[in-house]
């Protein structure tokens, strides 16, 4: 379900309509990060870089500070949230077409996704909790996006808990993920860690027996990452247990068409730090 929902959420960070809305707020749009941090952090309120770095985890604190320190001087979180929904509305209409956006199958998918999202407990999950406090929009396609966002943040918060339990700090979480082949190391440079910070994290993992000297994962390193993913899935299960197997399967069927459209749009990078498509 995460593989199906994540692209429907993440298209916000790449769509030209979203960049237009961000530019109207005053954010720089020569790269995706100024609007990314604003879009994703806005549910938390006017928080500073320390809390955003804590919640986002894998980004270098220096990179977070660069984009968050003045973010709420550019636009208030409430204005960002309103523009975010406008961006999603425009993006979905451009990608999916009005017939799909207003059609009965998408409305059914939105209702099912919302049921799952409302079963995503916020306890110990700052980003999921912030999403859960937002009012639900009325239009089904916006309900679908908000439900997808709540579910992905719920899963992400649980993933961070699994990383912490595994003793993987923010830089180590990326180095260990690259070491199992989730994506080439240069792709992870987008998270803002310096070469020295990356090398230090690699040295720590090597000393723990999790990496070989060449930077690839040892059997122990692969086992630890497999345990992180297993625990992440376990912590993300409650919404789908609440929805039930039949309705979950129905939602998966309904999401197939929109998912293919988003993937086929070319907006999302084929190689990414999320490891989508990796086993």
Task: For the structure shown, list the relevant keywords.
279 residues; mainly alpha
Compact summary:
The chain has 16 helices and no strands. With 279 residues, it is mainly α.
Number of domains: 1
* Mean pLDDT over the full residue set: 95
Termini separation: 15 Å
Number of strands: 0
Rg, rounded, reads 19 Å
Q: Hey, roughly how much beta strand do the residues contain?
A: under 5%
What shape does the CA trace take?
A: globular
Instruction: Tell me roughly what share of residues is in helical segments.
Output: 55-70%
Number of helical segments?
16
| Unreliably modeled segments | none
What is the chain-wise order of helices and strands? HHHHHHHHHHHHHHHH
Biggest beta sheet attributes: none
